[in-house]
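Hi,

Apologies if this is the wrong queue. I'm a grad student, and the batch job for ChsH2 rubredoxin-like zinc ribbon domain-containing protein from Streptomyces filipinensis produced an output file that my downstream script rejects. I'm not sure whether the problem is my script or the file. Here is the sequence I used:
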Amino acid sequence: MPHSRTPAVAGWFTGENDDFRLLGTRCPSCTAVFFPREDTHCRNPHCEGASLEEVPLSRTGRIWSYTDSRYRPPSPYVSDRELPWEPYALIAVELQAERIVVLGQAAPGVTVADLTVGMEVEVVPGVLHEDAETTWTTWHWRPTEVRA
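Support response: The file is valid. Your script probably expects a header line. Output copied below for reference.
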C-alpha cells in the first residue's frame, strides 16, 4: 500500500518544492488578507465585506520574532510520550505585501542560533507527523541566507 501525503489542514497550502505556497483569502472590499484563511466573512471590523477570494501568499518574508519550544506540550495536546522530545524553533514571519504575520516551525536543522530578527526566510513544504500509512504535511520556514 502506498504511503499517502495528506495536508494537516486542507486548503491552507498548495504545491511542491519551488511552487509551494501558503493560501490565504483577501476581501475585495477592503483588500485585507487573512491567514489562516477566512471563508465566511471579512474579519476587518470596519468592513462589511461578505465575499472572499483565495490568494497565494508571498513565498518569502522577514522574521518578525522567534522562539524555541523546549518542552513537551501538556495534556490535552497530543504528544507521543514514548518518544524523546525534540525541541524546535517557532518563527513569526512578516509578509510585507500582505501586511500580516504568519507563524510556523523552522525547517528541520534550523535552530534559534541560526535566526535573527529581520532575516529573510522562505516557506517550504514540511512534515508534521508520519505514521505507517500517512505523511501529514505542513509548512516550515527556512532562511534564504546563511548567517555569518
